[in-house]
Structure formats: C-alpha cells, structure tokens
Design brief:
With 149 residues, the chain is of the alpha+beta class. It has a single domain, classed as Transcription Regulator spoIIAA (2-Layer Sandwich). Strands 2-1-4-3 form a 4-stranded mixed beta sheet. Strand 1 and strand 2 form a beta hairpin.
Length: 149
C-alpha cells in the first residue's frame, strides 16, 4: 500500500472540513422544491449575484425557477425540462460575467440517494453553491504499467 504525503493528507483534511462548513448568513439559499412542505436545500447564491439575478428574472422569467427576496426555488420537473431551465439560468449568469471558466461540460446534480435530478454546466456548480463529486487523477499516481500513451 502506498502512503500519502503530508501535503496530500493536509489537502484531504481541508476538503473534508470545507464540506461540513455552512454558507455565510448573507448567502441566499437555493431550494429544490417537490411541494410546499418538501423543499430541500441544495445550494447558496452569493449576495453579489442576487441583484443581477433578481432583475433578470423579473424582466424575463424562466420555467421552474422562482426567486423571492429570501430564497431561490427550483421546482421539480422532468430532468430534461429542469435541465433546460437551469441552462437558461446559468447562461444568463455567464452573460452577466458571474460564471467564469466555462467548459461546455455537463455535470449531473445527484441527491444523497444517488438520484440524478438535472444536468448543468460544470462551471456553474460553484456559482450556485451546488456540491458535486468528481474523481481527479494525476499521472504521478498512476503506476507506469497502466499509463496510457
């Protein structure tokens, strides 16, 4: 078994601490709504983005997306419909300069039970405070015998 370096262990510990950290109080909660009494907190919106998004949604609404003064609600729909609405939302945020590093790479939002609800541009996940899971590999940790190329 290969042991992990001190810096790798420190990075893993920081990642674990960050997953348990609450969003700042002034961040707007984002809820996935299945009905009036069954909303699930799935993210947070930075207060710097809130005025832009509120004005944008007042000027032109997006199906399944509702924003009040204290929360953004994403209404459950068919995954394709929900994804289409969220694509409109993240495109507006990109056009406003709030989503950087656009990759043209879809990422699925998955609940704690492994159910996929929607797909969204990968770069938008951080903007909306959505948690995601990914696996990153480094050529440095892949044994030479199985490296490609």
């Amino acid at each position: 078994m290969t042991s992990l370096s001190t810096s790798t262990l420190a990075a893993l510990e920081e990642m674990l601490q960050n997953t348990a950290r609450s969003a700042p109080a002034d961040f707007m909660p984002i809820f996935l709504s299945r009905g009036a009494a069954d909303d699930q907190l799935i993210g947070h919106l930075n207060p710097e983005f809130t005025p832009y998004l509120q004005e944008s949604l007042q000027n032109q609404s997006i199906p399944l997306i509702h924003m009040g003064n204290d929360k953004l609600t994403i209404q459950i729909g068919k995954p394709r419909d929900l994804s289409a609405s969220l694509y409109q939302l993240d495109d507006r945020m990109r056009m406003g300069g709030y989503i950087l590093g656009w990759r043209n790479e879809d990422f699925a939002w998955v609940d704690n039970n492994g159910h996929k609800y929607f797909r969204l541009e990968r770069a938008a996940f951080r903007t909306f405070g959505f948690r995601s899971m990914a696996t990153h590999t480094s050529m440095a940790i892949i044994p030479k015998a199985i490296r490609f190329g």
